[in-house]
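Q: Hi! First time doing this. I have a protein sequence and I read that you can turn it into a structure. Is that right? Here it is:
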Amino acid sequence: MDPTRPIAGEIYTISGYIDQSLSRHDSLLMWSRVLSRVPGDKVLVCQPNTKAIALMGELSARALMVKNTRGYVVDGHCRDTDMILEMGFPVYCEYNTPADIVERWRYDRLGEPITIGTVTIHSGDWIVGDRDGVVVIPKAIAAEAVRETMKVMNTESDMREAIVGGMDPEAAYLEYGKF
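A: Yes, that's right. Below is the predicted 3D structure, encoded as structure tokens:
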């Protein structure tokens, strides 16, 4: 939603599906239960298995923000975007829609593996997102990925300084091996 608001942290997963047999009370009780069970200090990643409704709105974002949830990523839609942007809670979604989950959606799994596109995501994996996109890092290689990323960033910083200082781009590439 806000490309200037990056997101990073350990993942907690949720999935669900369309179920139009739910009453208003049951659907809202179920969703509030999800918000209550999300651990703080995690990024909630949702596979709703639908593109028909919003799976994040202002009240849900506030509830997660108060719990110190690091952010929310959904393979689907959001609503109340102006209010979410104003409060500064990191949300990554595909589209916006006014269509709500009430009487339409139920969760079926919390903390279990989900798949978005071709990527299987586990609770405990890590996620990093910014205006360029979102990347999931498997828990087993997260520490190594951070070390390698820091090396690349340091090399790129050195190269940037060299270019800004007047070094020829080709010479900088040959010296640093990055561009």
